[in-house]
Amino acid sequence: KVPAEPWPYPWETCMPMAGAWSYYPNDKYRPTRELVHLLVDIVAKGGNLLLNAGADGRGRFDPVAEQRLSELGRWLAVNGEAIYGTRPFAPYKDGKSCFTRRRDDGAVYAVYLPDEAETLPRHLVLTGVQPQAGEQVRLLGHAKPLRWEPVAGGVRITIPGSLAARPPCEHAWAFRLGRVRDESR
Description:
Elements: E1 12-16, H1 32-44, E2 48-52, H2 63-79, E3 86-94, E4 97-102, E5 108-112, E6 123-127, E7 138-139, E8 147-151, E9 154-158, H3 161-165, E10 173-178
Parallel strand pairs: 1-2
Antiparallel strand pairs: 3-4, 4-5, 5-10, 6-9, 7-10, 8-9
């Protein structure tokens, strides 16, 4: 189960990558995009994901399971700083974006979860968060800071056309907002 809101205690979602917990020949595996979105949603609510892949009687994994884990690893290689060492950050989710905050430096991340076949948008508006003045907004996997401007109750991020056409990863994109204004706390 994945709760709708964070729970006030440590929790974990345990689920198989496919239909069965154990090895099952020709099992249907979840697409990588679904696994990435699931991981982001769980982490943004303070949970841990235990993802199972069953090995056959000889200890081998289905090639599809290996492929999914490799693709998930490639996504984490680009976006891991928005996942590892983070805590939930209210509003947790705004439309297609989930939020996390680093424990060490307080930086806030917005991870955009696109619909199937959706490309990186040229403009992203996030409500409920706004970087502090002087902060740089970055798309993880891209070296240069992005243009941003405050808007009522949030921020508008501009993504260059060349970056939108060739983003640094697939499935979801993490934006480092840095430290954000925190008027309600």
